[in-house]
Amino acid sequence: MTPRAKFDLSLIPARPDLQFEQALWAQGLRQVAGVDEAGRGALLGPVAAGVVVLPADCPDLLGRLQGVRDSKEMTPAAREHWAVQIKAIATAWAVGYAAASEIDQLGIAPATRLAACRALAQLSVPAEHLLIDYIRLPEVDTPQTSLIKGDARSLTIAAASVLAKTGRDALLVGMDREYPGYGLVQNKGYGTVAHRAAIASLGPCRQHRHSFAPIRVEGEER
User: Fold this and answer.
1) Residue 4 falls within a domain, yes or no?
2) Taking the model in full, what pTM does it have?
3) Residue 191 included in any domain
4) Most buried of 14, 103, 179, 195 (most Cβ within 10 A)?
Protein backbone atom coordinates (compact mmCIF):
# COMPACT_ATOMS: atom_id res chain seq x y z
CA MET A 1 0.00 0.00 0.00
CA THR A 2 1.44 3.37 -1.03
CA PRO A 3 1.77 5.72 1.96
CA ARG A 4 -0.13 8.99 1.72
CA ALA A 5 2.12 11.92 0.87
CA LYS A 6 2.42 14.55 3.57
CA PHE A 7 0.55 17.78 2.93
CA ASP A 8 2.82 20.71 2.06
CA LEU A 9 2.06 23.30 4.73
CA SER A 10 3.53 26.02 2.51
CA LEU A 11 0.34 25.75 0.42
CA ILE A 12 -1.66 27.31 3.26
CA PRO A 13 -2.12 31.06 2.69
CA ALA A 14 -1.90 33.64 5.47
CA ARG A 15 -5.71 33.60 5.50
CA PRO A 16 -8.31 31.75 3.45
CA ASP A 17 -8.55 33.12 -0.08
CA LEU A 18 -10.54 32.58 -3.27
CA GLN A 19 -8.03 30.74 -5.46
CA PHE A 20 -10.20 27.64 -5.83
CA GLU A 21 -13.43 29.59 -6.19
CA GLN A 22 -11.98 31.89 -8.85
CA ALA A 23 -10.76 28.94 -10.90
CA LEU A 24 -14.28 27.50 -10.89
CA TRP A 25 -15.94 30.86 -11.53
CA ALA A 26 -13.69 31.26 -14.56
CA GLN A 27 -15.17 28.02 -15.92
CA GLY A 28 -18.64 29.54 -15.70
CA LEU A 29 -19.60 27.80 -12.45
CA ARG A 30 -21.12 30.63 -10.42
CA GLN A 31 -22.71 28.67 -7.58
CA VAL A 32 -19.71 27.19 -5.82
CA ALA A 33 -20.62 25.87 -2.37
CA GLY A 34 -18.20 25.46 0.50
CA VAL A 35 -18.96 22.68 2.97
CA ASP A 36 -17.55 22.11 6.47
CA GLU A 37 -18.59 20.43 9.70
CA ALA A 38 -18.58 21.18 13.41
CA GLY A 39 -18.95 18.89 16.40
CA ARG A 40 -17.50 15.74 14.92
CA GLY A 41 -15.39 15.05 18.01
CA ALA A 42 -17.92 16.06 20.67
CA LEU A 43 -19.41 13.61 23.17
CA LEU A 44 -22.88 15.13 23.16
CA GLY A 45 -25.29 16.64 20.65
CA PRO A 46 -25.54 16.62 16.88
CA VAL A 47 -22.85 16.99 14.28
CA ALA A 48 -23.46 20.07 12.12
CA ALA A 49 -22.53 20.87 8.53
CA GLY A 50 -22.53 24.36 7.08
CA VAL A 51 -22.88 25.15 3.39
CA VAL A 52 -22.17 28.59 1.92
CA VAL A 53 -22.36 29.91 -1.65
CA LEU A 54 -20.50 33.21 -1.97
CA PRO A 55 -21.33 35.62 -4.82
CA ALA A 56 -18.92 35.44 -7.75
CA ASP A 57 -19.47 39.10 -8.62
CA CYS A 58 -19.18 40.73 -5.19
CA PRO A 59 -16.68 43.63 -5.16
CA ASP A 60 -13.84 43.14 -2.64
CA LEU A 61 -15.24 39.89 -1.27
CA LEU A 62 -11.97 39.13 0.50
CA GLY A 63 -12.01 42.52 2.14
CA ARG A 64 -15.62 42.31 3.23
CA LEU A 65 -15.00 38.93 4.88
CA GLN A 66 -11.45 39.68 6.00
CA GLY A 67 -11.94 38.28 9.51
CA VAL A 68 -13.27 34.90 8.42
CA ARG A 69 -10.95 32.02 9.28
CA ASP A 70 -11.20 28.37 10.21
CA SER A 71 -13.78 28.67 12.99
CA LYS A 72 -11.49 26.88 15.46
CA GLU A 73 -9.05 29.80 15.21
CA MET A 74 -11.68 32.44 16.00
CA THR A 75 -13.03 33.67 19.32
CA PRO A 76 -16.74 33.07 20.05
CA ALA A 77 -17.43 36.80 19.67
CA ALA A 78 -15.63 36.91 16.32
CA ARG A 79 -17.53 33.87 15.07
CA GLU A 80 -20.85 35.46 16.00
CA HIS A 81 -19.91 38.75 14.32
CA TRP A 82 -18.71 37.17 11.10
CA ALA A 83 -21.61 34.73 10.94
CA VAL A 84 -23.91 37.74 10.55
CA GLN A 85 -21.70 39.17 7.79
CA ILE A 86 -21.50 35.85 5.96
CA LYS A 87 -25.28 35.44 5.95
CA ALA A 88 -25.73 39.00 4.67
CA ILE A 89 -23.27 38.58 1.79
CA ALA A 90 -23.85 34.95 0.77
CA THR A 91 -25.91 34.04 -2.26
CA ALA A 92 -27.21 31.10 -0.22
CA TRP A 93 -26.37 29.33 3.01
CA ALA A 94 -27.70 26.54 5.20
CA VAL A 95 -26.81 24.40 8.19
CA GLY A 96 -27.79 20.75 8.48
CA TYR A 97 -27.58 18.40 11.45
CA ALA A 98 -27.44 14.72 12.28
CA ALA A 99 -28.60 13.87 15.80
CA ALA A 100 -26.67 11.95 18.44
CA SER A 101 -28.99 8.96 17.91
CA GLU A 102 -28.15 8.99 14.19
CA ILE A 103 -24.45 9.16 14.99
CA ASP A 104 -24.87 6.11 17.22
CA GLN A 105 -26.78 4.27 14.52
CA LEU A 106 -24.69 5.21 11.47
CA GLY A 107 -21.25 6.10 12.80
CA ILE A 108 -19.76 9.59 12.91
CA ALA A 109 -18.44 9.70 9.32
CA PRO A 110 -21.74 8.71 7.63
CA ALA A 111 -23.66 10.98 10.03
CA THR A 112 -21.40 13.89 9.11
CA ARG A 113 -22.12 13.28 5.44
CA LEU A 114 -25.85 13.06 6.24
CA ALA A 115 -25.70 16.49 7.91
CA ALA A 116 -23.94 17.90 4.84
CA CYS A 117 -26.54 16.41 2.51
CA ARG A 118 -29.32 17.93 4.61
CA ALA A 119 -27.65 21.34 4.44
CA LEU A 120 -27.25 21.09 0.66
CA ALA A 121 -30.91 20.16 0.31
CA GLN A 122 -31.88 23.39 2.07
CA LEU A 123 -29.96 25.72 -0.27
CA SER A 124 -32.13 28.22 -2.11
CA VAL A 125 -29.97 27.76 -5.23
CA PRO A 126 -28.52 24.48 -6.52
CA ALA A 127 -24.77 24.11 -6.02
CA GLU A 128 -22.79 23.57 -9.21
CA HIS A 129 -19.56 22.51 -7.51
CA LEU A 130 -18.64 21.68 -3.91
CA LEU A 131 -15.46 22.66 -2.11
CA ILE A 132 -15.23 20.40 0.94
CA ASP A 133 -12.82 20.28 3.85
CA TYR A 134 -11.09 16.90 3.55
CA ILE A 135 -14.09 14.55 3.16
CA ARG A 136 -16.05 13.59 0.06
CA LEU A 137 -19.80 13.15 -0.37
CA PRO A 138 -20.41 10.05 -2.51
CA GLU A 139 -24.14 10.47 -1.86
CA VAL A 140 -24.16 13.70 -3.89
CA ASP A 141 -23.89 13.84 -7.68
CA THR A 142 -22.60 17.43 -7.70
CA PRO A 143 -18.93 17.67 -8.77
CA GLN A 144 -16.73 18.24 -5.76
CA THR A 145 -13.20 19.01 -4.71
CA SER A 146 -11.94 17.72 -1.36
CA LEU A 147 -9.21 19.93 0.10
CA ILE A 148 -6.84 19.06 2.93
CA LYS A 149 -6.88 22.01 5.35
CA GLY A 150 -9.72 23.39 3.25
CA ASP A 151 -11.00 25.70 5.98
CA ALA A 152 -7.58 27.38 6.04
CA ARG A 153 -7.29 27.65 2.24
CA SER A 154 -10.77 28.41 0.89
CA LEU A 155 -12.81 31.40 2.09
CA THR A 156 -16.04 29.63 1.15
CA ILE A 157 -15.15 26.57 3.25
CA ALA A 158 -14.04 28.80 6.13
CA ALA A 159 -17.37 30.63 5.96
CA ALA A 160 -19.20 27.29 6.08
CA SER A 161 -17.17 26.30 9.13
CA VAL A 162 -18.24 29.48 10.93
CA LEU A 163 -21.94 28.87 10.26
CA ALA A 164 -21.68 25.22 11.27
CA LYS A 165 -19.94 26.14 14.52
CA THR A 166 -22.24 29.03 15.51
CA GLY A 167 -25.36 27.06 14.56
CA ARG A 168 -24.32 24.05 16.62
CA ASP A 169 -23.20 26.16 19.58
CA ALA A 170 -26.62 27.81 19.72
CA LEU A 171 -28.29 24.39 19.87
CA LEU A 172 -26.02 23.27 22.70
CA VAL A 173 -26.81 26.39 24.73
CA GLY A 174 -30.49 25.49 24.39
CA MET A 175 -29.80 21.89 25.41
CA ASP A 176 -28.13 23.12 28.59
CA ARG A 177 -31.54 24.27 29.87
CA GLU A 178 -33.05 20.84 29.24
CA TYR A 179 -30.05 18.87 30.48
CA PRO A 180 -28.42 20.95 33.24
CA GLY A 181 -25.33 19.82 35.07
CA TYR A 182 -23.08 18.98 32.12
CA GLY A 183 -21.82 22.52 31.53
CA LEU A 184 -22.93 22.61 27.91
CA VAL A 185 -22.82 26.41 27.71
CA GLN A 186 -19.11 26.20 28.40
CA ASN A 187 -18.03 22.95 26.74
CA LYS A 188 -20.55 22.72 23.86
CA GLY A 189 -20.61 18.95 24.31
CA TYR A 190 -16.87 18.36 24.01
CA GLY A 191 -15.06 16.03 26.38
CA THR A 192 -13.56 18.48 28.84
CA VAL A 193 -12.43 17.28 32.25
CA ALA A 194 -15.52 18.87 33.85
CA HIS A 195 -17.87 17.31 31.28
CA ARG A 196 -16.40 13.84 31.78
CA ALA A 197 -16.69 14.26 35.54
CA ALA A 198 -20.36 15.21 35.12
CA ILE A 199 -20.99 12.11 33.02
CA ALA A 200 -19.38 9.95 35.71
CA SER A 201 -21.52 11.61 38.37
CA LEU A 202 -24.87 12.04 36.60
CA GLY A 203 -24.68 9.35 33.95
CA PRO A 204 -25.29 10.10 30.25
CA CYS A 205 -28.39 11.88 28.98
CA ARG A 206 -30.32 11.24 25.79
CA GLN A 207 -28.22 13.71 23.86
CA HIS A 208 -24.95 11.92 24.59
CA ARG A 209 -23.37 9.79 21.89
CA HIS A 210 -23.61 6.39 23.50
CA SER A 211 -21.44 4.74 20.85
CA PHE A 212 -18.49 6.90 21.90
CA ALA A 213 -16.29 5.06 24.38
CA PRO A 214 -16.22 7.73 27.13
CA ILE A 215 -20.04 7.55 27.42
CA ARG A 216 -20.09 3.85 28.22
CA VAL A 217 -20.53 4.33 31.95
CA GLU A 218 -22.97 2.97 34.47
CA GLY A 219 -26.22 4.84 35.02
CA GLU A 220 -29.52 5.51 33.39
CA GLU A 221 -30.27 8.25 30.91
CA ARG A 222 -31.63 11.48 32.30
Assistant:
1) no
2) 0.94
3) no
4) 103
- Residue 161 belongs to domain with CATH number: 3.30.420.10
How many whole angstroms separate alpha carbon 4 and alpha carbon 51?
Answer: 28
Q: Which residues contact 58 (CB under 8 A, 6 or more apart)?
A: 64, 89
Q: How far apart are CA 100 and CA 207, in angstroms?
A: 6
135-138 LR contacts (CB < 8 Å, sep 24+): 135/37, 135/109, 137/35, 137/113, 138/113
Give yes or no for residue 180 having a pLDDT over 70: yes
Count the domains in the chain: 1
Q: Does residue 8 register a pLDDT over 90?
A: no
Cα four-point dihedral sign 158, 162, 163, 164: positive
Query: Is residue 199 situated within a structural domain?
Result: no
What is the pLDDT, as a whole number, of residue 221? 60
Q: Are 163 and 179 in contact, with CB atoms under 8 Å apart?
A: no
Is the pLDDT at 181 greater than 60, yes or no?
Answer: yes
